[in-house]
Amino acid sequence: MLWTPLHAKIHRTIRARHLFEPNQSLLVAVSGGQDSLCLIKLLLDLQLKWGWRLGIAHCDHCWRDDSLANARHVENLAKIWETPFYLATAKEPVKSEAAARNWRYQVLSKIAQSNSYQYIVTGHTASDRAETLLYNLIRGTGADGLQALTWQRPLTTDIMLVRPLLEITRSQTEQFCQELNLPIWEDATNQDWKYARNRIRQELIPYLQENFNPQVESALAQTAELLQGEVEYLEQIAAKLREDAMELGKEDGIALRLNRRVLKTAPLALQRRVMRQVLQQILPDAPGFEHIEKLTALITAPNRSQTDPFPGGAIAQVADDWICLRQC
Length: 328
Description:
This protein is of the alpha/beta class and 328 residues long.
């Protein structure tokens, strides 16, 4: 086995960040592209040191003419590597990137649960982290959106999603695949500029590298890493503040109420986070900036003030020291 600097780096990262422990079961999502091939080869080589049980899963979205051939390519690699292979095929072509991502995590979780894998492992890199930061920044977001690609997060109560390559750039995974002659499957949709992420990858990142910072991908990934720690801390503090301020509704029609006197003592950043956490409990979809702002404004609003209906019909009203959320 060829032991490269990338092997050493990932070995240290997994150990330092406690991403996995010895003898655990890892289901690796492999598309056939350079990032996922780099990931699975690294994990297969490290398997001798860690004693993992590895499996390979491939998701066929059925949105390319060559998607079946792509799936067979990954299956053949799994046979060569003598690793269990699992294929998930969409019943109909997935319509959007967001829908595809949701579908992938759903089917990967089912495969993991059915076959007793504790982790789902993906090949997201520092380049993906940089692109996600820019994509969300352009659309409008807070710190949560800017740090969206984290090292790990729970997918279900017993399955963790892990991304071990977040300190590795796409150019590094490409070089690794070339050095080890790994057969990369080129995805034509990565060149389709109708997708905003592809335009960021093919046009914006190279422009920033040439005109501002050759290491912009790593710099943005480091920014996301710093924000991740700050977001985790703020979320914990906001959860404690919400717990102190919130009471479940004791009257008909009132879902919950928030003590304005408790919230007034907190900085605006924490007030907003509390309101975001509250709205996440009662809204059908993730709350937007305008939803959070109009609920936050009630902390200092005159008595009897109220909002217009939120999505799903809930209304917030001021009653003396309380903000009452009613389901209409």
